[in-house]
Amino acid sequence: MSLVLTPLENIPLIRRDDNLADIVLKSLQDTGLTLQDNDILVFAQKIVSKAEGRKVNLAEVSPSPRAIELGEQTEKDPRVVELMLRESNEVLRTRIGTIIVEHKLGFICANAGIDHSNVAGTGDLAEEWVLLLPENPDHSCDLIRKEIEIKTGKSIGVVIIDSHGRAWRNGTVGVAIGISGVPGVVDKRGEKDLFGYTLRITIIGAADELAAAASLMMGQASEGKPIVHIRGFPYPLQEGTIKDLIRPKEQDMFR
């Protein structure tokens, strides 16, 4: 068994309303790949957000008193903090330079996933623009997947990923924030190990494992490889949702 990850070539700079399915199909040709059943395409969150028009000009944001207060506490731009508050259910932790929130999509992340890097506007300074996460990443995956399947006749999976930190380890890793046709988790409970022991608690975060692997291929700076093709996923493709990966609040021992 082998898992093969291939960054797609010649991905253009993505703009609002670009058709990501068509861009992928052209890039697959340029990369010398023919899509097969059970292949998976992994998209960096930024290009999906850009195509969906999730770019915001900070010059047009008026911070609330709460955003101004948090901005002073964390030494962050209160306009960015205002967007964080709009994108979040709850602020969980703060320190200088960082605000940890429960995003309205359900997961815990720093700064509500709002990003300055690799974001530029038109007619304004680049630092005046930020990018929000897709409004509904699962739905975004569904749309891309269905269009590609219609145009190719192949059954595939689609994942959107972002870089997240972890409370108990240094460094960011790629995690799934949207999935379609890919299991979020794979439940191995009830299966036997090599020595006949019945597994009791083993649930594999398969979509996050895919995300971390794809993130290695994408890079984090100027690599320009925001889509990765994956072949050889060791589990059957099936319908999943990002909610499968989010631990319920009552089971979260770190809150």
What does this structure look like?
With 255 residues, the protein is of the alpha+beta class. It has two domains: 4-45 and 135-246, CofE-like (60s Ribosomal Protein L30, Chain: A); 55-131, CofE-like fold (Alpha-Beta Complex). 26% of the residues lie in helices and 25% in strands.
Q: What are its keywords?
A:
255 residues, 3-stranded antiparallel β-sheet, 12 strands, 60s Ribosomal Protein L30, Chain: A, globular, alpha+beta, 26% helix, CofE-like fold, 5-stranded mixed β-sheet, 6 helices, 2 domains
**Taking all residues together, what is the mean pLDDT?**
92
- Strand-residue fraction? 15-25%
- The gyration radius over C-alpha positions equals 19 Å
CATH class of the largest domain: Alpha Beta
The stretches of 5 or more residues where confidence is low (pLDDT under 50) are none
Total domain units: 2
What gross morphology would you assign? Answer: globular
In spatial order, strands of the major sheet run 1-12-2-8-9
Level-2 CATH architecture of the largest domain: 2-Layer Sandwich
- As for the CATH topology of the largest domain, it is 60s Ribosomal Protein L30, Chain: A
Q: Say how many strands there are.
A: 12
Helices and strands: which structural class?
alpha+beta
The end-to-end span amounts to 39 Å
Main sheet? 5 strands, mixed
Summarize the amount of helix as a percent range. Answer: 25-40%
Put simply, the count of helices is 6
For the record, what is the CATH homologous superfamily label of the largest domain?
A: CofE-like
Query: What is the ordering of alpha helices and beta strands?
Result: EHEHEHHEEEEHEEEEHE
